[in-house]
Amino acid sequence: MRRGRTDREETRKLWDEDPVRIPLQRSKKRAVVLVTIILFCFAAIFFRLVNLMVLDHEKLSQRAAQQYIKEKVFTPQRGVIWDRSLKELATNIETDSLFAVPSQINDTRAISAEIAPIIKVSTGEVDGILSKRKKKSFAWLARRMDRDTSLKLSTLRDRFDEGEIGFVKEPKRCYPKGEIASHILGFSNIDDHGIAGLELVYNEYLKGEVKSVSVGVDAHGRSLGGDIKDAMPGNNLILTIDEGIQYIVERELSAAMEQWKAKSAVAIMMDPMTGEILALANRPTYDPNSPAEAGAEEKRNRAITDLFEPGSTMKSILASAALEEKVVSMRDIFDVSKGSITVGGKTIRDVHRNGVLSFQEVIQKSSNVGSVKIGQRLGAEKYYEYIKKFGFGDKTGIDFPGEVKGIVRNVKNWSGTSIGAISIGQEIGMTPLQMVRAYSAIANGGLLMKPYIVSDIISPTGEVIKKVGPVEERRVISKTTSDKMKDILKTVVEEGGTAQKASIRGNLVAGKTGTAQIFDPKIGRYSPDKFASSFVGFVPADNPRVALIVVVFEPKGASYGGVVAAPVFKNIIEHTFAYLDVPMEKDENRVVLVSAVQ
Description:
Layout: H1 2-17, H2 21-55, H3 57-68, E1 69-71, E2 81-82, E3 88-100, H4 108-119, H5 123-132, E4 139-145, H6 147-153, H7 157-161, E5 165-174, H8 182-185, E6 187-188, E7 194-196, H9 197-201, H10 203-206, E8 209-217, E9 223-232, E10 236-239, H11 243-260, E11 264-270, E12 277-283, H12 296-299, H13 302-305, H14 315-324, E13 333-335, E14 340-343, E15 346-349, E16 356-358, H15 359-364, H16 368-378, H17 380-389, H18 418-423, H19 432-443, E17 447-449, E18 454-458, E19 464-467, E20 472-475, H20 479-492, E21 510-520, E22 525-539, E23 546-553, H21 561-564, H22 566-580
Parallel strand pairs: 2-10
Antiparallel strand pairs: 1-8, 2-3, 3-4, 3-5, 6-7, 8-9, 10-18, 11-12, 11-23, 13-16, 14-15, 17-20, 18-19, 21-22, 22-23
């Protein structure tokens, strides 16, 4: 108590002596405290700035970019696919793709209910996308929409203004000819990756390259639209296909399917001198603009994936081998009057009874008995050698996905009946492409050519990146044998032959019919009512411009190749030659043919 009283007395005494001194002392103390606090705050801010600007600079810059620039992968223009005359078979159109900014959406169910009916998906699906990516700044809702859908979505102005959804321009693959050449071209998926056909095989060339793609948003999260920088369009393809010929082939194949109520059909036209594929068609078919609407049966490229037993078209390969090995001559005679022959305990019969036939007539009239006798003269070892020389049992190497090798058993595994069966085109499986290539070798003087369908790969600037030309794989028969076979095959289309319905006025046809029973695994034997009807040949016979095979599977009402397939061959060739303005060999038979190309 005394101490407190003393302090107060001293303070009062000092106040009496100098009334200003005490407030100043107190102010200085407060100032020191305040300055200390301010300096401490500045120090803290300074160290925080150092941390942000130096230590965490890279991480924070990336975070800022993520908030204001949304990097996404957008597809550049895919390369164009042209036919041999530079007509577009596959190109691109510009479309709108719809995206959302989930972090800017408060009521996901409300916006989902507005958008879902327009893009034709369920409300739950849209809501699921938005909810799962709630903290994200980008989510696809619909890609490459049609114009009507885009117009309907554009009415949601409030949603766009608030930055909840936005449009980005993307190229969409387009096939302007619809179903034409669909099995050749194939198609690509929503991300423009090739899925089938040439789109798949040449995807790396066609797809293009993007170096920088971004979608910007402002401070409120509103979209500033898409920006594609340094996008390199894909390379372009030039095909050996002729759009006009392709149209003719597909039209005639469709007509045959309708006429014969067939299960399927294939036609391939090839330049026998070069190996170029001029047309390739399958039925049933599909529209590559809407691949999801087609099933596996429609999408199958049967020309290279489906095997068939060729039947009598194989007799030309047998005859060529026999002539080349000189085990027969054009003057040889074969007695087939019995109408049947037994090989290894199996009886093989002729469809029509014949008497004594020349070697040429055996092929002209398609005698099974005569062919078996030729096969026995040639022998299994030599026949197998020529079967392989002509390319059967091996892939042709064409630039298509899914090609199969075929079925050719090694001669060591042949049974006692094999020489007879294979002589008439059974116990062997091949693709239509393998067969038309083999006939092309007969047509061109004996050379087996590699078939191809892409002739040039062109850069976006017009530079030729790759050029493909004819590839001669090997000689299979001599020109002398080739010339003899041409003379024989011409008689097949003449009076007395099996393919008179393939005859063309003004140009000589060389070819062969085939009628093969189809093996039915359900009953474990050849079906009595299911056939593969075919005709394969080349025109003009002495100076061939084209080789063509037509195969109709399981026709109803008829089965012979000369009845079912030969007329299709004739129609295709006539309209193709009119389209190409190929002169007729005989001026006195000149007729006017109207082009089928519209």
